[in-house]
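Lecture 7 notes: from sequence to structure.
We start with the chain below.
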Amino acid sequence: MTASCFCGINDKLEYVKTLWDRMAAESRHLPVPGWHKDVIRERLAEEDHVDDTRDWDHVLNELRRELKKKSRQYGKVRYKWGGDLPPPYC
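Predicted structure tokens for the same chain:
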């Protein structure tokens, strides 16, 4: 049965979930390419050298500065509620 046979969103989601589960079960038999391992090693090595932890206020201010720079470059970004940034997720 193919995905196009399903009518509702729940059926489609169930199909994708089943497909994903099958792929995950079979993936352990697939070889991992050497370049994947190289990328992982590089990223882990970079992580060992990073001790740059920033608090939320610093990150938020950095994002605001970047957004202002982009808005000067591309025009003002406005969201539905009229703000310059998405609402906080709290």
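Points to note: The helical segments are 9-27, 34-49, 56-74. The CA atoms of residues 14 and 69 lie 43 Å apart.
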